[in-house]
DNA sequence: GTCTATAATTCGATAGAC
DNA sequence: GTCTATCGAATTATAGAC
């Protein structure tokens, strides 16, 4: 029962097609948002028939849910020098986004699609809050610290990838890290104001 | 030629209707985004016929352009104590938004509508950069400082009004000001990193 | 100025042949 | 598994009566 022929392998022709659909869907959702991205256009990009999209993913919502699966892949913050938490986080986020348009798709869709907004809340409320909680002292402040971090991180993504403000687009990732890291550092470990 | 009868007064029945349309349009665009907000729904809210919207504003794009007119109404920053610039700015933005949903409409639409994104760029690149330039020392840094401020300000609005992250929704404006003011202060007047 | 009627598209989704 | 054909609904926009 070592290997090749079949039986335990459900993957055949369809897996390549499914992957092509997801890739095209991410592109379109990222570029056009949820409403303007049509199943027909996605299917054309993937060079398959539109009805295949429905067959594989049931509906447009189902397709989006599959295409916008996103994991922040946050590193273990307990092994990071406490004074460098902000820097590590900004670097991580920028690197994570520059190579994967899934978050842009999610960001654009979250503006108009309730399901996408809900997923965004889940990602930043669960994954990020969880990471912040691993080292935070005061549990009652953890959620707020995570929310503030999310506000700066998502504002960075929004101005750089969605609105495309020229100064935010032209600035290199390293320069952005230098400016933004102290902000996150204070949100994460700073003394609560008054 | 003092007063009432007519001649120099083009406003008659239509002005109230136009205002009602704009109000309903801002509500719908803010709540649903550009694509999902339909002319029919806006007309129903304003209790007028859908064709009147077309007659007055020509097209859906034209209606949005009229409804999403937005002025930051930035105060004169030269009369603000330099050490309190961040605080004054956050306070101003929060107050400006809590009572006017136009920015939320613009924010939501900017994700999918190129024209709305262009307007957003104009607002933050012109109005904000102009205000920052009035006191900034190094002109080459002015655009970048304004962009960074925009990133935190728009991230605040995005997480609080669009995605509605619970910790950002539950926090009072005063508490938000306390946390965010130092960030803007550093973006505006801080020493450039390395 | 206001409304009815409808044109012209476009979309998501379905049925069914092969 | 894949594709053709099409349904039914919704949209912006227009033409024209009153």
Automatic annotation (TrEMBL), chains A, B:
Residue ranges annotated for the HTH tetR-type domain, each copy included: 15-75
Ranges that cross the membrane: none
Keyword Manganese: no
The entry's keywords: DNA-binding
UniProt DNA-binding residue ranges: 38-57
InterPro entries: Homeodomain-like_sf (IPR009057), HTH-type_TetR-like_transc_reg (IPR050109), HTH_TetR (IPR001647), Tet_transcr_reg_TetR-rel_C_sf (IPR036271), TetR_C_16 (IPR041678)
Listed GO MF terms: DNA-binding transcription factor activity; transcription cis-regulatory region binding
Top-level taxon of origin: Bacteria
A Pfam family this chain is assigned to: TetR_N
Keyword Metal-binding: no
Protein name per Swiss-Prot or TrEMBL: TetR family transcriptional regulator
The organism of origin for this protein: Micromonospora inaquosa
High-level lineage: Bacteria, Bacillati, Actinomycetota, Actinomycetes, Micromonosporales
């Amino acid at each position: 029962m070592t290997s090749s022929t079949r039986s335990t392998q459900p993957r055949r022709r369809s897996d390549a097609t499914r992957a092509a659909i997801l890739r095209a869907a991410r592109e379109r959702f990222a570029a056009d948002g949820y409403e303007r991205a049509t199943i027909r256009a996605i299917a054309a990009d993937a060079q398959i028939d539109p009805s295949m999209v429905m067959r594989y993913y049931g509906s447009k919502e189902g397709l989006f849910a599959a295409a916008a699966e996103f994991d922040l892949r946050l590193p273990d913050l307990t092994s990071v020098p406490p004074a460098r938490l902000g820097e590590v986080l900004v670097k991580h986020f920028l690197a994570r986004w520059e190579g994967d348009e899934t978050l842009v798709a999610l960001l654009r869709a979250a503006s108009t699609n309730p399901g996408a907004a809900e997923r965004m809340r889940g990602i930043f409320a669960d994954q990020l809050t969880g990471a912040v909680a691993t080292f935070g002292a005061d549990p009652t402040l953890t959620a707020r610290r995570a929310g503030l971090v999310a506000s700066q991180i998502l504002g960075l993504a929004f101005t750089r990838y969605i609105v495309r403000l020229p100064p935010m687009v032209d600035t290199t990732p390293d320069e952005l890290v230098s400016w933004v890291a102290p902000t996150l550092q204070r949100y994460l470990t700073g003394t609560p104001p008054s």
